[in-house]
């Protein structure tokens, strides 16, 4: 009888190998039991819940944060995607505190962040297009301009814009890119290299007092395209002044006016705008053009700083042409990453 009883107990799984699913189920049951038996789950974690609500309000209402004090609104919008890093931190704290209130509150910023940036998490790249463009702030202090030029040319882009060109380094860039690009023009500190003929090349006044923007008509196989190259003034974060961007903002308005006055329907803007697509200060530009990264890119496409990219301040914006794919190129000798995009110029068959 004793032997029979022992065998029956063994057959029922009492001392047999435990299944992983059983262990997970028992763990969930213990956690659930602990939460069900805790009468304070709604009273704990109120500070965590409050922080989550504030985070959600800041992200949802970023456009209402005033720029009057240190351009705080623009500063917030520049690094807005990174606010999402606080969400898993708050989630862990809510779980450790066993706070139902905090857990529910964390859903608010998570929902707002996904609404703002969830679309960038999916790969929207396509395989079409008839024109590849690239842009790169090469850095005036670049120790290897020839290597940087060759790296950008190796991308296969039909049209390449370079910004922050040091006068003494221009001949080096011209020589390094001559074999790949038959046509080129340099205006001030920006330049454009093209495999297609260029005409009507001229400086664009962005109210700086020196030349950091240009436009050219590029005669592509799909038709003429007005290509703009711009390097907007830099911004700084200073303890006594906040986010100093007044001159950048004025130049952005001037560039937006020039693009709006452009007679050609197909327009491409390439350059370092020293601002992200979320930054309201660039509305004069972004309200009339599409970001190729936002439309057909894979991920955020951060371009600066090259060693640890935290923001996409280098932009490819288009109107009148159809973006197909957008990507970031490998690091060069610059503190920016080059970026590229492929667009469809001839949209008559679309």
UniProtKB/TrEMBL annotation:
<keyword id="KW-1133">Transmembrane helix</keyword>
<dbReference type="InterPro" id="IPR005135">
    <property type="entry name" value="Endo/exonuclease/phosphatase"/>
</dbReference>
<dbReference type="GO" id="GO:0004519">
    <property type="term" value="F:endonuclease activity"/>
</dbReference>
<keyword id="KW-0255">Endonuclease</keyword>
<feature type="transmembrane region" description="Helical">
    <location>
        <begin position="79"/>
        <end position="96"/>
    </location>
</feature>
<keyword id="KW-0378">Hydrolase</keyword>
<feature type="transmembrane region" description="Helical">
    <location>
        <begin position="45"/>
        <end position="63"/>
    </location>
</feature>
<protein>
    <submittedName>
        <fullName>Endonuclease/exonuclease/phosphatase family protein</fullName>
    </submittedName>
</protein>
<keyword id="KW-0540">Nuclease</keyword>
<feature type="domain" description="Endonuclease/exonuclease/phosphatase">
    <location>
        <begin position="134"/>
        <end position="336"/>
    </location>
</feature>
<dbReference type="InterPro" id="IPR036691">
    <property type="entry name" value="Endo/exonu/phosph_ase_sf"/>
</dbReference>
<feature type="transmembrane region" description="Helical">
    <location>
        <begin position="103"/>
        <end position="121"/>
    </location>
</feature>
<keyword id="KW-0812">Transmembrane</keyword>
<dbReference type="Pfam" id="PF03372">
    <property type="entry name" value="Exo_endo_phos"/>
</dbReference>
<feature type="region of interest" description="Disordered">
    <location>
        <begin position="1"/>
        <end position="22"/>
    </location>
</feature>
<feature type="compositionally biased region" description="Polar residues">
    <location>
        <begin position="1"/>
        <end position="11"/>
    </location>
</feature>
<keyword id="KW-0472">Membrane</keyword>
């Amino acid at each position: 009888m004793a032997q029979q009883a022992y065998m029956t107990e063994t057959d029922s799984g009492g001392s047999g190998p435990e299944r992983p699913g059983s262990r997970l189920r028992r763990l969930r049951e213990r956690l659930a039991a602990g939460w069900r038996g805790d009468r304070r789950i709604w009273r704990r974690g109120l500070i965590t819940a409050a922080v989550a609500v504030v985070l959600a309000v800041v992200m949802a209402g970023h456009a209402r944060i005033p720029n009057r004090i240190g351009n705080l609104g623009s500063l917030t919008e520049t690094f807005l995607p990174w606010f999402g890093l606080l969400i898993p931190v708050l989630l862990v704290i809510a779980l450790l505190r066993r706070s139902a209130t905090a857990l529910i509150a964390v859903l608010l910023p998570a929902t707002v962040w996904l609404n703002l940036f969830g679309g960038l998490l999916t790969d929207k790249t396509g395989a079409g297009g008839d024109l590849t463009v690239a842009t790169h702030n090469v850095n005036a202090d670049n120790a290897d301009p020839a290597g940087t030029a060759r790296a950008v040319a190796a991308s296969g882009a039909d049209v390449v814009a370079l910004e922050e060109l040091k006068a003494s380094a221009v001949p080096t860039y011209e020589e390094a890119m001559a074999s790949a690009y038959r046509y080129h023009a340099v205006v001030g500190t920006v330049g454009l290299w093209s495999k297609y003929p260029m005409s009507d090349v001229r400086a664009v006044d962005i109210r700086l007092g020196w030349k950091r923007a240009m436009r050219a008509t590029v005669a592509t196989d799909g038709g003429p395209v007005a290509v703009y190259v711009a390097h907007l003034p830099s911004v700084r974060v200073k303890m006594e002044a906040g986010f100093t961007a007044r001159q950048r903002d004025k130049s952005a308005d001037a560039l937006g006016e020039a693009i709006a006055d452009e007679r050609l329907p197909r327009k491409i803007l390439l350059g370092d705008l020293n601002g992200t697509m979320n930054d309201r200060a660039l509305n004069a530009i972004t309200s009339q053009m599409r970001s190729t990264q936002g439309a057909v890119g894979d991920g955020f496409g951060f371009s600066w700083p090259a060693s640890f990219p935290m923001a996409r301040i280098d932009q490819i914006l288009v109107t009148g042409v159809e973006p197909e794919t957008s990507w970031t190129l490998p690091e060069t000798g610059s503190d920016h990453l080059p970026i590229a995009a492929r667009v469809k110029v001839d949209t008559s068959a679309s």
